[in-house]
Amino acid sequence: MRTRWTRRRNRLETRVLGRDQGVRGLLRVTLAPPLATHLLMPDFAEFARLHPEIEMEILSIGEPVNLTNREADIAIRVVYDRSALPLNLHGLKGPELFGGVYMSRDRLAAWRAGAPDPIRWIVISIHGIPDWAREGEVRTTGVPFRTTDAEAQIVAVRQGLGMTTLPCFVGDADPLLVRVPGTPLHKHGTLWLLTHGETRKTKRVRLFTEFASRKLASYAPLLAGLSISRD
Known about the structure:
single chain; 9-stranded mixed beta sheet; D-Maltodextrin-Binding Protein, domain 2
C-alpha cells in the first residue's frame, strides 16, 4: 500500500513540477564520475554562472538513479541498447563513446629502448581485462595491478606500471598518456540526455538539456577517439 501511495505521490509531484516555468530552483543532474570530473565539470560551472538562480546538484555516481521517482531531474547516461530505455523517459541522443588502451608516454619510450621492467595490465578489480582489449605491439609480462576506482587506475598508469583501458575523452586528453600501438578502439555505447516526461517541461530542465546537448555535440570527436593522430 505504501509503495502504491508513494508512486501516486511521485506522479502528482512530477505533474506539478512540469508546470513550473520559473528558472529559480533545484536542478539535479546524475552521470558517471569520469564524465563529471574529466569532461563536463567546466561546462556545469559555465551553466551555473549563466544561471546563478538555479541551485545545481551534481550526482556523480556509478549506479543509475530513478528519474521516475525524482531521484534526479536529468541523467547523462551511456546507453548500450536503445531499446532498453524506459518508455516513460524522454531521450535526447548524443555522441557515441569509445575507449582505448593507454600507457604512459615515458613507459612506452622506455619499452622501445629495451627497459627490462615488467609491463602490467592495470585493472579495476570488479571489471578485470575486457575481452575487446588486446596488447598490440606491447606485451604485458607481469601480474595484473588492481585498483578499486577509476582515479587510482589513472594515477597508476601515469606512474608507468603498465597499460590500461580508458575512455578516449580521458586518455587522449591526458598529455602524460598515449595509446598503446596496435590496440583497437572499442565502442562503449551512446550518450543520452534523459528526463522524465513531465519534468522535462520545466524551464530550468529545458535550459540545461539544450545547453548540455550543444556541449556534448562539440565533444563528439574527443568522445569517439578522433581528436588526435595515432602514435
